[in-house]
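Co-fold these.
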Amino acid sequence: MATMREVAKLAGVSVATVSRVLNQNGYVNQETEKRVKEAIQTLNYKPNEVARSLYKKSSRTIGLIVPDISNPFFPELVRAVEDVMNIYDYTVILCNSDEKGDKEKEYIDILKQRYVDGIILTTNQLTSEELSDINVPVVVLDRPLDHSFPSVVANNYEGARMATNYLYKQGCRRIAHIQGPLHVVNALERFRGYQDEMKSLGLWDETLVFIGNYQMSEAKIATMEALTNQKIDGIFAGNDVMAAGALKAAQQLGLRVPEDLAIIGYDNIPLAEMTTPELTTISQPIYDMGAIAARLLVKKIEGKPIDQIHHVLPVKLVRRESTR
Amino acid sequence: MATMREVAKLAGVSVATVSRVLNQNGYVNQETEKRVKEAIQTLNYKPNEVARSLYKKSSRTIGLIVPDISNPFFPELVRAVEDVMNIYDYTVILCNSDEKGDKEKEYIDILKQRYVDGIILTTNQLTSEELSDINVPVVVLDRPLDHSFPSVVANNYEGARMATNYLYKQGCRRIAHIQGPLHVVNALERFRGYQDEMKSLGLWDETLVFIGNYQMSEAKIATMEALTNQKIDGIFAGNDVMAAGALKAAQQLGLRVPEDLAIIGYDNIPLAEMTTPELTTISQPIYDMGAIAARLLVKKIEGKPIDQIHHVLPVKLVRRESTR
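Predicted complex below.
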């Protein structure tokens, strides 16, 4: 590999001049800059990124902290972030925090030691206060903290109202909700949307709410129990994975979906099309969420103006076979 | 944050001595080393990883190149690599190559510019020859190249024979195979296993093979066509996603699974338990594959002896509801 010294020699300038051209700082006259750039091309010189990052305190790398990449919501989100970052010439360090505050803090420390240029957080174990001295650009994705960081979320509250109302319009009157983990903001917002819609329909009954923790097996067990103990004609599950669990429970009890029981999920992950019947669901623009967060972070890193700090993306109902 | 200079001052030694302790090279007497380590702890000094990586040409970061994280086989593999790397204090840069040789080459260049300590490759677009001047430790995962790099794969050939033979034992005689992409080694090995087993059973018939490219929708279309045109009583799909597609096709044509048609998948991803009926499949030890590859890479990076260069992990049949 060619060195900076060789570039300087070929261009007939000092190493310091080459460095100024590479880092685009200090004065270099146009003619000289052209010669340096030609020498870089001729020698196929690749700047040593580590040396550059030490100098610029930048590594052209960002950190992306997710709860768990094996949760089927996250692969598409991660893919979107990586795609966009790749366009802007940044690499992405992936970290799985398992929703643990300690692990998040540890990762943030490690990422800062690596001089990442920014961090995208999809968790909410840490408060804005704990993050206040983070000192690198941060964008919050999927799970908003408060208003101190740029954020991208989908409209969980509206999505939940939409799902509940759709079941009502289908004739369901005893509409149950399978709730995600109580400490996860989007799960709470979906619960709130369900609750408000049920109240406004005059159907609210707290015994219709049960916990599935975003897990298929837990949702299946909870649904079996609920269907055995009380009359339920519709289920709004807080995510598609739990909707698949509810579907299994119904089938095991000999109920027909959607004739005896309508089910609606949330997320529109690929799984929603793989079950039989296929799941009606609230579609989140997962890829767009990741892509917008990545673009926001690039703008923050590069000090460019940001038109809109907080993005709440619309969701939509996707009708399939698990509702009438 | 404390600086190296402050550590040196507190320990009463030179900055060069602190550097020798941190980088574990050069002679430092035991007493001095102890004092330096105490000073590091007292001041909660965090070495500047970028400066260290420049000096050591190491970044405590590895690159992980996968075809596409949104392919449901990869999240668990990626998770395993990250879990193990985290234990050894390495971070993981994730790259999606989309099975494109150009993109792989580009990522390898970028990763080398970032001074990654090693690379795990789960793709096989590049030949060993093209990788011969790569100059960083490489471990090949899931898709073997040849014998020049340490590798971890599951036994695709045996798994395919096992699946085919199981369908035979269930009474199937017209056993079709839905094949993955022709340029992917594991897809070809699964095809070879199927072919050899069918030959040894005296059932080989090339018209029973069709292409699904590891995609659900393609597999569904191919299965619809195949089931309409000829007699088939068993399907061995090259992965679970295609098995889910075959299941949909069968249900759409009014066939009962497993009574009229038995279906067996490959991989044992979470999806296999989410369909109705649940999929019988060949289970790959996906997490173990990732974890073993990560440990191999750490050993290579740290120059430790490696007992076994090539790992071919056993697979097993998981009986569920899509076979009798």
